[in-house]
Amino acid sequence: MREIFDAELKQLGQDLVAMSARVEQAITDAGIALGTGDLALAESVIAHDLAIDAVERELDERCVLLLAQQQPVATDLRVVVSALRMSASLERMGDLARHIAQVARRTYPRKAVPQPLSGTFSEMHDAAVRVARRTTTLLESRDLALAERIEADDDLLDELHEDTFTALLGGSWMGSPQETVDVTLLGRYYERFGDHAVSVARRVVFLVTGDFAEQVDAPTA
Q: Tens digits of per-residue pLDDT, 82-105?
């Protein structure tokens, strides 16, 4: 019986890695679609978000069954509960990538990001892709040094998010009302993407060390 339970716990870990890999591809493609105005790529990101949602549902159902049937305690309980929390964060990251792609689709053939902010959003894209890639690797390896790097990339996303507000409110902004809304939303999507990745990273730290990091729970949006 213990061997079956161990196999189930291992499968939870594999599912989280697979889910994170899908999120990594989604945020990569969403950022490319945003920067290039690639309509087909944006629509692909939107469609493939359903697969991320499906993985989350299956993983959560497995966790509930394990809790009901195995009544895990100590480290095993920590693994199952953490898997539930991390799957929710990863699903939300997939949603945020979809939101970015939806903006790219809605504004086609115009690019959503005005030229004066293209450099800022290019940096946000690069930071978000690094966050996603490191999250996938962290879930595979549980290398706590990666958790620190995810936090650093999230700090950069926060700074870039602030830069978008500075540009919008600095007095020289010449964008249309719709462009103002798009920039505001996109900056928020990238900023929250980083926050959810940090939540996953802190959960992994908790799994490895047993210590709660500050504000370990997932963001609310």
A: 999 999 999 999 999 999 999 999
